[in-house]
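Our consortium's second objective concerns turning raw sequence data into structural hypotheses that experimental partners can test. To show how far this objective has progressed, the report includes one record in full. It was chosen at random from the queue rather than selected for favorable results. The single chain below, 335 residues long, was entered without modification.
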Amino acid sequence: MNDTAPVCVAVDAMGGDKAPETILAGLEKALQDDPALSVLLFGDEQVVAPFSQHHPRVTPRVTTEVIEMGEDPLAAVRHKRDSSIVAGVRAVRRKEAQAFFSAGSTGACFAAATVIMGRLKGIHRPAIASVIPTPTKPFVLCDMGANPDCKPEDLLMFAHMGGVYARFALGREHPTIALLNNGSEKGKGSELTKRAYELMEAEVPGFVGNAEGGDLLDSRYDVFVADGFTGNVALKALEGSTKTVFRTLRDIIMSSPKNKVAGALLKSSLRQLMLDVNSDAYGAAPLLGVDGICMIGHGSSNERAIENAMHQVCLSVRGDLVGAVAAIAGERLKQ
């Protein structure tokens, strides 16, 4: 992989809870970090034009519509053709950019990428793969919300694609892959997971069997596979638990002078722990299985998350993530 190869990314300036300010601030840092990065910036003229004037590697693309978080994703993509999400995805389809990034509506990004970029041959359902940081080591969760209803064959492909992304994002050359289930024994689970287990056991390199929810924070495996409903519940449970633990710990430390002294002694260790479990270190999750790179950021992304999201986008482009997923899908079609 050529770490200095030029990369052009279509960026949605209008998506996210803190857009456009946070998007622009993070983008500015990413441009400083990577001199080979250039950007097509999509959004309101008063946002994209002034920013591009101060950044030679940024080209403004004025759009007149924004897809809001509460809108029906597919309807919004169909009717708001001049939105920053639709126009940005279309730029990748036209090969004007090599990747698209947005911290806006996940559903709209999924719909736009699936409809406009199209699916890779052999992929029935694209999936979102997210790197989840833990106190031990990060792991990949796939799918984390794109497909609430799945067939066993879909979970099989999620396992293959999750393994590919673990190699890209985490450097795990031979990732261990587990099926998230309600028990570790082979016969556990629903009809969906039982059949998916059989398919993965026969075909997926590195498959280790079922994993339970308690295995997530231990990060016992490199990839956890789930349907989008289960994956999203697991993700939100992890995020909520982490916030609750740190909030409770803060309250305990502040509850007495003695505890404040103890907290001061542990300050550096606690700060490092917070960094270890902070998803801002990765910033974006790819939609795997579409014919192009579509990276989706969290709606509450801060400046650091946007900066790191650009790093993940460039890594995926330079390493040809789409080609790697297409190769896996192609091999399965030959079987």
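The partners drew two points from this record. The chain has two domains: 1-123+289-335, 129-278. Residues 129-278 form a domain with the Isopropylmalate Dehydrogenase fold (CATH 3.40.718.10). Both points have been shared with the crystallography group to help prioritize constructs.
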